[in-house]
Amino acid sequence: MRAMWNATKPPLEWVDPMVRVPKYELHAGDEVLARLSLEPLCRTFATVETAEGHWTFKQTGILATLVHIREAGADQDLAVFHPGFLGRGLLRFGDGETFQWRRAHHNGGWSFRDKDGRVVLTLRLEPSPPGEPWPRRTRAEVDITAEGRPNPRTPLLTAVGWFLMLLHPL
Question: Strands 12-15, 109-113: parallel, antiparallel or unpaired by DSSP?
């Protein structure tokens, strides 16, 4: 698997290569940069693999849900996503770094923003087919901004963003 920084063919795109099987891949052309697999029966747990690391994501709670992000095999949270109103939320890392998850109104996608409010990356779902009111969650384009490129957490943010879009159909 190639590191996200070495991708030769933008754009980056999350795809569902096996329709109806909850396994997704982040592609740059024909190159696979990441894999995200949801538990088949309980889609609130995911494993993620990239050249930069391996992580697990787990949504907990019923009314007050959280998403716990851990390095694979670790017992401690690396970060926790605290959801807010209408799908928004705050991703807080153990070292205090935070990222806001917000709708990107100008393009219909969702984005992570740094502590200064600058967009780090945006994910956009493919448009709905004619006659269908809701977009399918089988493909999403990822746009990493100039502010996001130097951040070593961007590969993880890319996967967390896709997981959040799969969990919450807003």
Answer: unpaired
Q: Which residue has the tokens 């992000």?
A: 69
Does residue 49 sit in helix, strand or coil? strand
Give the residue from 150, 158, 44 showing the smallest Cα distance to 109. Answer: 158
Q: Is the pTM of this model over 0.85?
A: yes
Give pLDDT tens digits for 17-47: 877 778 999 999 889 999 999 987 777 899 9
Tell me which amino acid residue 31 is: E
Residues 14/142, Cβ–Cβ less than 8 Å: yes
Would you say 157 and 146 are in contact if contact means Cβ atoms under 8 Å apart?
Answer: no
Cα 31 from Cα 13, distance rounded (Å):
10
- Upper half-sphere CA count for residue 169 (Cβ side, 13 Å): 7
